[in-house]
Amino acid sequence: MSAIVSIKDLSKTYQSGFRALKNVDLDIADGEILALLGPNGAGKTTLISIICGIVSPSAGTVAVNGFDNVSDYRKTRALIGLVPQELTLGQFDTVWNTVRFSRGLFGKKSNDAYLEQLLKDLSLFDKKDNELRALSGGMKRRVLIAKALSHEPKILFLDEPTAGVDVELRKDMWNIVRRLRDSGVTIILTTHYIEEAEEIADRIGIISNGELLLVEDKQALMHNLGKKQLIVELKESAPGLPQSLAKYDLELSDDGEQLTYTYDTMSDSTGITDMLQAIQSAGLLLKDMQIKQSSLEDIFVDLVRVDKEPVDQKSVDKKQADLAEAKS
Amino acid sequence: MNFQAIKVIFLQEMLRAWETLFQSLASPVISTCLYFIVFGSAIGSRIQSIDGVSYGLFIVPGLTMLSLLTQSIANASFGIFFPKFTGTIYEIHSAPISYLEIIIGYVGAAATKSLIIGCIILLTASFFVDLNIAHPVWMVTFLILTCISFSLFGFIIGLWANDFEKLQVIPLLVITPLVFLGGSFYSVSMLPPFWQTVTLFNPVVYLISGFRWSFFEVSDVSVGVSLTMILGFLVICIAIVGWMFKTGYRVKQ
Fold first, then answer.
1. Which CATH code for domain A3-222?
2. Where do the structural domains in chain B lie, given as residue ranges?
3. What is the predicted ipTM?
4. Which of A81, A163, A253, B101 could form a disulfide with A258 if both were Cys (CB 3.0 to 4.6 A apart)?
5. pLDDT tens across A236-294, in order?
C-alpha cells in the first residue's frame, strides 16, 4: 500500500487540558475512501484539522505525499481540499466569487472553464450568481464541496458531509464521492452514520476517546468481527429454557416464542447441527428460522461501548482479543 | 510566494468596500464636512491663526489623521475578525499561504482603503480651504506609513478580539481619546506646560505633528522625531503580529 497520508504518534491536548487525540498512527492509501467513524467528541475533526493545518499537534508528525505538513506546509496543503463540518460560508459573497476566491487562495491561476464544469457537476451552476445567504442548507454544503475542489486537490477531507442532509442529497453526495474516487482523488470522510461508511468506504477506522481503535478493510472488518445470529421461532411458547439446552449460547425471548443463537462465523464448528437436534430432543417444535448478520453498526456500538467502559476488564479483554483477531 | 492568494484576499477585501461604497466613502466625507462647518467656519472664524496658519487650514492634517486612524483600524480589524466570527478562517489556515502573505493581503487592502479615504478627505477639505502642501513627498510618506501601521494595529485587534465588544473597545476607549487629545484641533503649545508634558506621551501627537509639518512647515515636535515614532510604532506592530502568528496566540488552537 502506498500511503499518501502517513500519521505517526499524533497527539493533541487542547489548552483546556482536554486530550482530543492520543498517539494516533494511521496510513491512508492513495486513491482509497477511508471512513473515520466515531461518536461526537471522539477526535475525528481534530485529526482532520491537524492534517489540514488548522490545528497544531501537541506531538507526532503528519506526512502528506512524503512531505511534512508543518515544515513543507505549502506542498502538503496544496494537495488537500477540506469540506468542514459546519456550514461556514460568508453571507454576501456569490457562489461564483467564493469558489474563485478558494482557488486563488491555494495559489492556482484562475480557470473559469474548470470552475464552471465543477459547479455544473455539483448542480450549482444555475445558482452561481446567488448570494450565499440565500442558499438552502443542502446547497451550502455543495458550495463547500465546490470550494474544496476548486484547486483540484489530490486528497479530499469531508468532515461529516451528510450531517443534517436529506436522504436524496445524501445519496447524491455518495455519488459525488464515488465519482471523485474514480478520478483518482483520495477521500477521507468522518461520519457517525454507519450506513454511510458501510455504503461507500473501502476502509473503516473507528475512533473513540481520541484513540484509533482499529482501521480495517470494510469487508474484512465485517467478516472478522461480524457475528451471526440464528433466530428460531417456536410453534408453542416455552415456559423457560430447558435444562438440556443450557450449554448452548441460547436466549429465550420474554414471550417464550423465540430462541436466539449467536455464533461465530469464523470458528470451524458453528454448533448449529447439535443445537438444532438438542432443541428437537427437548420437545420444542420449530415454526420458522432466520439468520441475521451483525451490521457495522452493531460492531461499532460494541467497540465504542467497550471503549467507554474500561473498568469492565472482561469486556476489555474480549475487545482486545477481537482486535487481535481482526488484525491477524 | 503565493501571489494568487495575496491577490484574491486583497481583491475580496476591496470588493467588500465596493459593495458598501456609500457607507465607505460618504461617511468620511460627511463627517469631514461637518467638522469644517463646525470647527473651521463657525468656531474657527473666532479663533486667531495658529503659527501663522488660519484655524480652518490648521485642522486639515489633524482631521485627515483622525479619519485615517479610525478607518485603518476599523477596516483591518473587521477584515480579519469577520472570517474568524463566521468560521471561514478555516480556509485561510488550510491554504498553502504564509503568515506574511495573509498580512500583506488583509493589511494591504485595509491600508489602501484608508489611503483612498485620506485622499478623499483632503479633496473635500480643498473645497473649504485653500490647501497648499509644502512637502508633498513627505505628506504622502506620512500618509502611507500611517495607513500601514494603523491597519496593522487594527489587524492585531481583529486577531485578538474574540467578540464584538473587544473589537470595539480599543478604537473607542483608546484611539478616539488619543486622537482628540493629540492636537488634531489645536497646537500642543496652546496647552499649559504640565499638559504639554503629558501630551508628549501620546504617540498620536507625533503623527499629527509630522503630518502637519509636511503641509505648513509648522510642528509641535521635530519631523525626525515624528518619523522615528511612527516607524517605531510600525516595528512594534510587526513584532506583535509576528509573535501572535509564531506562537499561534489567538490565531490557532
1. 3.40.50.300
2. 3-40+52-247
3. 0.88
4. A253
5. 888 888 888 888 888 888 888 899 888 877 677 788 888 888 888 888 888 999 988 76
